[in-house]
Amino acid sequence: MQETILKSLLFVPGDSDKKIAKAQGSGASALILDLEDSVLPDNKDAARATVREFLRIHRDRSKQQLWVRINPLTTESALPDLAAIVAGAPDGIMLPKVESARDVVLLDHYLTALEHREGVAHGRVRIIPVVTETPAAMFELKTYKGASARLLGLTWGAEDLSTAIGASTNRLESGEYEFTYQLARSLCLVGAHAAGLQAVETITANFRDQAQLLREVQASRRAGFTGKIAIHPDQIGPINAGFSPDDADVAHAQAVVKAFDDAKGAGTVQLDGKMLDKPHLTQALRLLASAHTLSQ
Ligand code: COA
Ligand code: MG
After folding, report:
1. What would the pLDDT profile of 191-208 be if each residue is shown by its tens digit?
2. Superfamily of structural domain 8-242
3. Is the separation of the CB atoms in 168 and 132 below 8 Å?
């Protein structure tokens, strides 16, 4: 069965009824109801109750999936989070600050037990771990393949990693990510593809500049990411648009396919003075297939 591609995943603080209500109309492929860093310790219980009730009431997920970011497995909040929300059959769990695929396997086991207790279909709750938030996790990016059938994708984060290594910033003067965070991004990207999973781009904190966001999203798509996390409803439009191939991309892909058709069986051809071989054809066919799926 074809996996659903989550293009846009909108973080919503789990203790904010107002934002949760607003997020529903955002057009995001998925909401990530947050129980971790956007919720203060004193509000965790209230947030669990709010998220649990919201999941219970909103059972039709055909237009928008409902995910929950729980607290890290190393904290005492993680199991109470899971015990509260699995009854609501969330579409998935975003697991922050993982150390390696072992954390995913552990979460898989917890979910299996709780699904059984709550009468939720086995394997229903999927997992997207955040795989670059601790220094140790950076050395484990090849461990995710086959770790759990629940895995849908991998995503990365720059903020907690810089805090963990005592960096005063994760940016160069130019505003670009410093090398360590570019490495984190690339390792997430190739780690996800090595495991046959979706690569989900991290957040853009500046939510006021939509044109910049659209440029970034297009770059993410060209790099091999298939979706991105948002923190504000205004970011959903550019993200959904940016992860859809534009007319120029489609025209180029059609030209590539035509060049191979015209060459009648040749393994390598040229288009506008550039050499093309099998990977280019594969990529063009993949893009046309995704454009076709989107226009259905
Ligand atoms: N989900 C749903 N609604 C949101 C939202 C979100 N993530 N972010 C903002 N909104 C709502 C606001 O409540 C406001 O609603 P209103 O018009 O009914 O008053 C509207 O969108 C405009 O918001 P704006 O005034 O531009 O921003 P803000 O100052 O209210 O909020 C943030 C800014 C950053 C606090 C907010 O975007 C947010 O909470 N983001 C998610 C943070 C998060 O979950 N972080 C954890 C992962 S990094
Ligand atoms: Mg964080």
Report:
1. 999 999 999 999 999 999
2. Phosphoenolpyruvate-binding domains (3.20.20.60)
3. no
